[in-house]
Design a protein that fits this description.
About 40% of the residues lie in helices and about 35% in strands. It contains two helices and ten strands; from the N terminus they run αββαββββββββ.
């Protein structure tokens, strides 16, 4: 269904063509007098046939010209909005990446193994992070700090995670301990695991 703007464009164009056609067909039958215009600063005279031609061309082209200007302005506005949306999208992506980075903490826990005398006997340390996304267990590259204390770095923990550690020495003795709440308090007192429990 044609819009009102399209109907006005067509009517204006047809009227303009009718003026041009009238000027061409009735050019010889028109009165020979000239139209005179006198203004404050300018004045001119024009024959009726060129006047009708000018009026017809003006009517035929005016609506198309303004439609072009409106479409051009809308195109520029859409390009500006697209540019603004691209900038907002890039900013949102950056914030999302920063939020993901903020959600994933790196924990450097200090593990204190009770009743453990020889640090060279510690064979492995495993960390299990439990969060809203589930449970993830990974082997930890531990470093001896002093006495019966070890550093155990754990990456990729979600905020609010619970982290539990399990350490084992070469004799098969195991220790367990866990952190809850704020992971910044990363000192874990690990107790020997009793036989029969997992």
């Amino acid at each position: 269904m044609p819009t009102t703007d399209l109907i006005l464009d067509i009517v204006s164009f047809v009227l303009g063509l009718l003026f041009v056609l009238l000027a061409v067909l009735a050019g010889g039958r028109m009165p020979t007098g000239k139209f005179k215009y006198t203004g404050e600063k300018r004045s001119f005279e024009i024959d009726p046939v060129p006047l009708l031609l000018l009026m017809g061309l003006a009517m035929a082209g005016t609506s198309a010209y303004f439609r072009y200007k409106v479409n051009d302005a809308q195109t520029k506005q859409l390009a500006d909005e697209q540019s603004r949306n691209d900038k907002l999208s890039a900013g949102l992506d950056k914030l999302s990446a920063e939020l993901d980075q903020f959600k994933n903490e790196r924990l450097l826990a200090t593990l204190t193994l009770s009743d453990f005398d020889d640090p060279s006997l510690l064979k492995s340390v495993y960390a299990t992070g439990t969060s809203s996304k589930g449970e993830r267990t990974s082997k930890v590259q531990f470093t001896h700090k002093s006495g019966n204390e070890f550093w155990a770095p754990v990456d990729g923990l979600e905020l609010g995670s619970t982290v539990s550690f399990q350490a084992e020495d070469t004799n098969g003795k195991m220790w367990t301990g866990s952190l809850t709440g704020q992971l910044a308090q990363a000192a874990v007192d690990m107790q020997p695991k009793k036989k029969g429990k997992k």
